Amino acid sequence: QVQLVESGGGLVQAGGSLRLSCAASGRTFSMSAMGWFRQAPGKEREFVAAISWSGDSTRFADAVKDRFTISRENANNAVHLQMNSLKFEDTGLYYCAARRRGAVFPSAYTHDYAYWGQGTQVTVSS
Fold this sequence. Notes:
The chain has strands spanning 3-7, 10-13, 18-25, 34-39, 46-51, 58-60, 68-73, 78-83, 92-98, 115-116, 120-125. The strands form two sheets. Strands 2, 4, 5, 6, 9, 10 and 11 form a seven-stranded mixed beta sheet that branches. The radius of gyration is 13 Å and the shape is globular. The chain contains no helices and eleven strands. The mean pLDDT is 93.
């Protein structure tokens, strides 16, 4: 069993930055890829970023590339999402997700993730 808890969300003006964190517990964390997804009101959940279990491979949605970075600290069972140059369109509930144990590829697809946090709200305004 894996438990994920997100933090770091908040209200920020366009152009600002936020750093999201995800604390994970469970035996599978260090052996699985991790990802971030987001969902805006009335919209489908969408991929944001993902990182391999080793941290040497990452991928990003086109909408956030060059603005967001993802990193992980396996020793601390944590994953982070640094969000810079935030836009109005980045507003949403951000979820941390983990793949099953042994699934190391940083997938961009929701169905590849087995564990999900409750989400942290990010609101971008001006």
